Amino acid sequence: MSQMTIAAPRQRFARGASNTILIIIGLCFLVPLGWILFASFDTRATLAVEWPKNLSIDNFTAIMTVDQTWRPLWNSTLLSTGAAVITVLASILAAYPLSRFAMRFNKPFMYAVLFGTCLPITAMMVPVYSLFVRLNLLDSLWGTVFFMAATSLPMAIWMTKNFMDGVPISLEEAAWTDGASAMVTLRAVVLPLMRPGLAVVFIFVFIQAWGNFFVPFVLLLSPEKQPAAVSIFAFFGQHGAVAYGQLAAFSLIYSIPVLGLYVLVSRFTGSSFAMSGAVKG
Amino acid sequence: MPLLPAVALLALFMLGPVLWSFYGSFTNAALTGVNAANPDWVGLDNYRKLFADPDFPKAIWLTVVFVFASAVVGQNVLGVLLAMLMRSSQKIIRVVVGTLIVTAWILPEIVAAFAAYAFFSKEGSLNSLLAIVGITGKSWLYATPMLAVILANVWRGTAFSMMVYSAALNDVPPEITEAATVDGAGGYKRLIYITLPMIRRSISTNLMLTTLQTLSVFTLIYVMTAGGPGTNSSTLPILAYQQAFKFAQVGYGTAIATIMLIIGGVFAVIYIRTLKPEVD
């Protein structure tokens, strides 16, 4: 804002107005978030946001059991890591020929991928359920992992190809001249150069899978396989009306990993508005 | 062939369910019992039932209202507004408010849904804030369920539009707006004749993407109102889920899912054809 250094009165007024409106909007966004934070430290929390009457960490200690917290979080970790690893591997392999070789089906394939990113996944969950019944994949952790990987694959291929396009081809040509095969070149030359991009794709898929509620809610039935998103909903159904503090505490613990990863990914991309660029059309 | 893993995954878990959805919508598949294992072919029965069911046009209408109010109007207008305000505000305010808005977006959807539920509940934050100024609030989730879920979705999703528009506004060359200022165009005129036309591509892309995202919102509504009271906030995803899993009519739920897939597909084709995103 260099042109604002010698501010005319009118500009100063505009700036003051912008600040005020932004603060008001910010407060509207803050209140629901503040409830989670304050209620989690209040053993007598209600549904309204207020400074803890009874400030303590009892809510956190109360939910620190295997059934309540650790196993669901572990399941979330398995699901999200599995989906992210499979997605990243498959999209590296798919993006390489798409980015490097001009083939006849490149364009139709990328359009199909783009179409896939647009499809409403929630619309598919009923047919996916009956398909999983048929394939005997219902209540299978692996089935769910592969389904989540497949649904995030279109976006991941799109992002990976864009990152790969940014790696200059001249280095590979040198490697090819020295007799390296395409796969060796991919592993030894291209991938090391696009590590930050791959990290962005990995974290993007991980965050989506970690936060996904509907897919595991429909596909995983036994409580010992369910991730945190589903177990927290069951908790809400059973004790929601009494233990708001514990609900908020669990929500907070469950949210921290994705908030941390988001901060990490904004470091990689050098912008606090990370990921919007990846999705920009 | 390095494309194979990706193609296999997409064929089995994306194309498979889509085809299965078309097939399943012509059967009387149930959740349990004989019709779960061996559903019968019933032709167009599910669709006939669907169009005779008063809940279906209602769900379509509610979905249209939800998408239009929360995505097309709410998220996009608020997103542009925020992106512009952020350009002319103090850095510290910009950073703090931006972080709050992005936090609501990056939180797991179930947590965001709980937060919104608590906010709009009868004993929730909104009513306790209204009580300070002497207004006795309603039970929003029962009295005005659509309003509550629409506002909640604006709260949840505006960050995306804000980020897209911030990036777009950064690409508008300052010379052009300066030239307009020199020619005597005020702030409002600059917005209508210069800034918005310059970012129109981002606007149409973002409108399309937020529409598609909002079309498939399930968790937020399911946690806040479960589609109720009655079916007063049952959008298509909620209706499909309830028919399939609550009333055990999987075939019927699949027919609703198929219609949603077709709607989503049509939007996707419009988006790809009119905006022609670069694929090379």
TrEMBL record, chain A:
Keyword list, A-Z: Cell membrane, Membrane, Transmembrane, Transmembrane helix, Transport
One BP annotation, GO: transmembrane transport
Entry superkingdom: Bacteria
Record-annotated ABC transmembrane type-1 domain positions: 73-265
Pfam families found in the cross-reference section: BPD_transp_1 (PF00528)
Signal sequence bounds: none
Annotated GO CC locations: plasma membrane
Membrane topology recorded in Swiss-Prot or TrEMBL: Multi-pass membrane protein
CDD domains: TM_PBP2 (cd06261)
InterPro entries: BP-dep_ABC_trans_perm, MetI-like, MetI-like_sf
Keyword Transmembrane helix: yes
Segments traversing the membrane: 21-41, 73-96, 108-129, 141-160, 197-221, 241-265
Cellular compartment(s): Cell membrane
Keyword Ligase: no
Family: Belongs to the binding-protein-dependent transport system permease family.
Name recorded for this polypeptide: Carbohydrate ABC transporter membrane protein 2, CUT1 family
TrEMBL record, chain B:
The keyword Transmembrane is assigned to this record: yes
Transmembrane regions listed in the UniProt entry: 60-83, 95-119, 139-155, 207-227, 247-272
GO cellular component, one term: plasma membrane
Keywords: Cell membrane, Membrane, Transmembrane, Transmembrane helix, Transport
ABC transmembrane type-1 domain: residues covered: 61-271
Statement: the UniProt record of this protein carries the keyword Transferase: no
UniProt membrane topology term: Multi-pass membrane protein
Localization, UniProt: Cell membrane
One BP term from GO: transmembrane transport
Name of a matching Pfam family: BPD_transp_1
Family membership: Belongs to the binding-protein-dependent transport system permease family.
Protein name (Swiss-Prot/TrEMBL): Carbohydrate ABC transporter membrane protein 1, CUT1 family
Species this chain originates from: Sanguibacter gelidistatuariae
Species lineage: Bacteria, Bacillati, Actinomycetota, Actinomycetes, Micrococcales
